[in-house]
Amino acid sequence: MESQELDKRGRWGSKVVFIFAAAGSAIGLGNIWRFPMMVGLNGGAIFVLVNILAIILIGFTVMLAAFAMGRHTKKNPVGAYNAIKPRSPWKLAGYMGVFGSACILSFYGVVAGWALGYFYKTIGGVFKGDITWQSSDAIFSSFAGRPLEIIFCLFVIIGLTTFVISKGVRAGIERWSKILMPVLFGLIILLAIRAVTLPGAATGLSYYLKPDFSKFNMTVLFFAVGQAFFSLSLGLGTMITYASYLPKSDNLVSSAGWVCFFDSLIAILAGIIIFPTLFATPGITPDKFEASGGLMFQVFPIIISKIPGGYFFGILFFFLILVAALTSTISMLEVPVAYFVDERNWSRKKAALLVGLFCFFLGLPSGLSHGGVDIFTKWNFMKNMDLLFSNIVLALGALIIAIFVGYVWRVKNALKEISFGNPRFKLKPLWVFNIKFLAPVVIIIILIFIRTFAG
Ligand code: PHE
User: Fold this and answer.
1) Alpha-carbon span 4 to 221, nearest angstrom
2) How many structural domains comprise the chain?
3) Ligand 1 centroid to residue 131 C-alpha, Å
4) Strands of 334-401, DSSP E
5) Which domain holds residue 172?
C-alpha cells in the first residue's frame, strides 16, 4: 500500500538523496546572501550565536514536526492538514504555504536572476580593474534598474526551475541535487580557504565570531529566529512536501539533524568567506549593506577586483550562488505543484508550467522595483514582499505547525510516526517541550514584536 502510493507520486532513491534534496532546499540565497547581510545589520557575532540557538532549539523542532506530518500523510501541505484533521480550517495553513511558496519564489527568483546577471558580467570582465564602493554601487543600481535584462534573467531562472520540476521527484529534483550539492560544497570550501588566507583576515573573523553581548536586543532575536525559518525552508510546507516522498524506514530525526547541520555549516562558511575579505577591503563596514543588493552584489565585486585570482574566484562565487539558489527555487515550486497534482489531479507538467508562469508574472513588480518602474520602486515592492513573506508568513506558518502537531494531531501520534525508522528517539522529552511550549512562545513573542517594524 505504502509502496504503491510512493510509486505513483514519486519517492526519493535513498536516505542520502533525501538529505541532499532537503539540504538543497534549505541552502540557498538565505545562507549566502541573506545571512551575512543580517549579521552585518544586527551586531555581528551576537546574531550568529542567537541564530544558531534558534536553529537548534526551534528550527530542528519544527522541521522534525513537518517531516512527521509529510511522511505520515504523503501529501502536499493542504492535503496533509486535511488528512490529519478533515473538514477543519487548519488546511488554510496549507493554502498559505502553497500560495506563500509561489510568492517567495517570485522575488527570490529576481535575486537569483541578479546572480545570473553578475555571473555573466564577471565572465565578461566587468569587475576587472579598480572597483570602488561607489563604482560597485553604480554598477548594481544601473543593472537592477534595467528592465529588460532583469526580466530576461528572471525568465531564465523560473524557466530552469520549471524544467526540473516538470521532470518529477527522481529524474528532476533528485538528479540535480545529487550533482549540484557536492559542487556547491567544494566551491564554498575553496573560497573560504582563499578568504582566511587574506592579509588582515583576523579582524573580520573576530567581528564575525566573537559575540558582543551588549548588542543583544529584541531586533536581533526577531531577525535571528526569522532567519532560522527562512534558511531552513520552514513555515510554508516545503519540508512537509519533501518528506511526503519518504518511506517509513527513513530516520526522520537524523535526517532533520543533518539538514540543520549542513544548512548552518554553509551559512557559517559563507560568513567566513565574506567578513575577512570585507575587512581586508578599505572603506567598507558591514553596517553599510543596503538591504537589497547587500554584500553579494555590492561588496563582492570590489573584493574580486582586488584579490589575486579574483577573476576566477568571482566566476566561481556567482556560479555557486546560482547553484544554491536553483536547488531552493526548485523546492519552492514543488509545493504548489504537489498541491495541484495531489488535490486537483493536474499532470505534473501542466502544474509546473502554469505555476511557473504565475510566479514569473508575479516576480515582475519585484524585479522592476529597483528603478525599473517608478511606482514599484516607490512602493519598495520587493522589500515589502520580503518582509511580509520571509518574516511574517514563515513565522506564522511555523507557529501553526507547532501548535497543530503539539495539540491537534498530538505529540503521541507524531512520536509514533517518528518512531518508524528511529525506535529510540533520545531527544524525545526535549522535542516535546520545544514543540509544545518553547517554539510557540518564542514565535508569538516575535510576531507581537513585528508591530514595531510595521510602524
Ligand atoms: N531556505 C532557502 C534559502 O535559504 C529559502 C527558502 C525559503 C526555500 C522558504 C523554501 C521555502 O535560500
Assistant:
1) 45
2) 1
3) 31
4) none
5) 2-454
